[in-house]
Automatic annotation (TrEMBL):
Keywords: Membrane, Transmembrane, Transmembrane helix
Organism placement in taxonomy: Bacteria, Bacillati, Actinomycetota, Actinomycetes, Micrococcales
Organism: Pengzhenrongella sicca
InterPro entries named in the record: UPF0478
Membrane listed as a keyword: yes
Protein name per UniProt: DUF948 domain-containing protein
TM stretches of this protein: 6-27
Pfam short name (any one): DUF948
Amino acid sequence: MSVGDIAGLIAAIAFVLLVGVLAVPLVKLGRVLDETRVSVKELTDHSVPILDEAAATVASANTQLVKVDTITTAAVQVSENVSALTSLFAATVGGPMVKVAAFSYAVRRTVGGFLGRGRSAR
């Protein structure tokens, strides 16, 4: 064996050791990637039903909001109708009631005045 053969043999052994040292992290990296793939699959399997349930909840909430909007619109209409009815009642009955009250007050004062003078004259 010559010096060149020994140097080649040492270089080949060094290369094999280098490949062995680099193979260990690559194998570990492969395991990490496998675990990552399994974790992502489990996360996907668990998150899809949650997203479906959230979508159903949002749809139900939207339905309830439509019902609340309908109720609020009806309440506004009822409030407007009551306001209009109150105004109509005040205009229709309120004026004549004030006149009747004033007339009855005048009648009481007049009758009270006649009765009061009649008692003092006796």
